[in-house]
Amino acid sequence: MAQGTPETVPNDGLTTKQRRNRPMVIVNQGEGKGKSTAAFGMALRGWNQGWSIGVFQFVKSAKWRIGEQTALEALGKVHEETGQGGAVEWHKMGSGWSWTRKGSEDDPAQAARDGWGEVKRRLAEQIHGLYVLDEFTYPVEWGWIDADEVVETLMNRPGFQHVVITGRRCPGPILELANLVTNMTKIKHPFDEGQKGQKGIEW
After folding, report:
1. CA pair distance 19, 84, nearest whole angstrom
2. 177 near 155, Cβ under 8 Å?
3. Checking phi first, is residue 96 left (phi over 0); if not, alpha (psi -120 to 50) or beta?
4. Do the Cβ atoms of 36 and 11 come closer than 8 Å?
5. d(CA 71, CA 143)
6. Where is this region: Disordered (predicted)?
7. Which of 63, 92, 123, 201 has an alpha carbon 20 to 30 Å from 152's alpha carbon atom?
8. Is the Cβ–Cβ distance between 108 and 92 less than 8 Å?
9. What is the H or E stretch that residue 163 is in?
10. What would the pLDDT profile of 2-41 be if each residue is shown by its tens digit?
């Protein structure tokens, strides 16, 4: 429900409007399909609200151009030409971050740290209204990026900036910080029957 009534109201001194309009940390995790898809759906809604959208893909290969990227970048062009919606930026670690000259294939751990460093800079400068950190849980789980540093950065980010994190097995400290956590649970999947991904379903 878009404007449902909460079951409990905390004694936090905030008005209903203040409580509703707080920047969120959102985690989509689990073994099931749909983690990134849900995040990109939120990016579409954010674009409609006029937010600047920043998408940072931490694992996916640059050779795989998913449909959501094409759609959101097209909306970014609509914004540039008409002023409608918000600006859109899409960055992939697999192609080497656009702000570095070195390709990420040389050292993926360092590339992940470079990407996180850029996200930190943008948070500090309040560049975007919505950040999608796609498959960000993996470099944190692998120890490439420090979970406590992520928590501290997100906890102390200024202004009104939403952050969505996707991936399996999100580290506990980030889950503890998050305002909204969804666990995608697989019940059935065509892959289990040997079926490969389909256009419009997987990309």
Report:
1. 28
2. yes
3. left
4. no
5. 33
6. 1-23
7. 92
8. no
9. strand 162-166
10. 566 667 777 776 677 666 779 999 999 999 989 999 999 9
- Number of Cβ within 10 Å of residue 47's Cβ equals 24
- Identify the residue whose tokens are 């849980």: 137
Residues 6 or more apart from 5 whose CB is under 8 A from it?
none
Distance of alpha carbon 188 from alpha carbon 12, whole angstroms: 42
Q: Tell me which amino acid residue 49 is.
A: Q
Query: Which tens digit of pLDDT belongs to each residue from 73-131?
Result: 999 999 999 999 999 999 998 767 877 655 445 789 999 999 999 999 999 999 999 99
For residue 114, count other CB atoms closer than 10 A to its CB: 18
**Structure tokens that stand for 133 in this block:** 């950190």
